[in-house]
Specification:
SH3 type barrels; SASP_SspH; Small, acid-soluble spore protein H; sporulation
């Protein structure tokens, strides 16, 4: 994922499915360096990690 798309997802009122290493996550904060973000697992609010935005993947759900 690129930084611009991550910004769109964070700013959107809609819910997007985003994963990191195949695990569903929420993006908590985008960092000023434009390369990293703080994320947490959807099932665990306590565990937060700083990750490379390029490793985030937007999952497209088929309906």
């Amino acid at each position: 994922m690129d930084f611009k798309r991550a910004q769109e997802i964070v700013a959107s009122p809609l819910e997007y499915e985003v994963s990191y290493n195949g695990v569903s996550i929420w993006i908590d904060k985008l960092h000023d360096d434009g390369k990293t973000a703080t994320v947490h697992l959807r099932r665990s609010l306590e565990e937060r990690s700083e990750v490379d935005i390029g490793e985030l993947k937007e999952e497209y759900l088929m309906h």
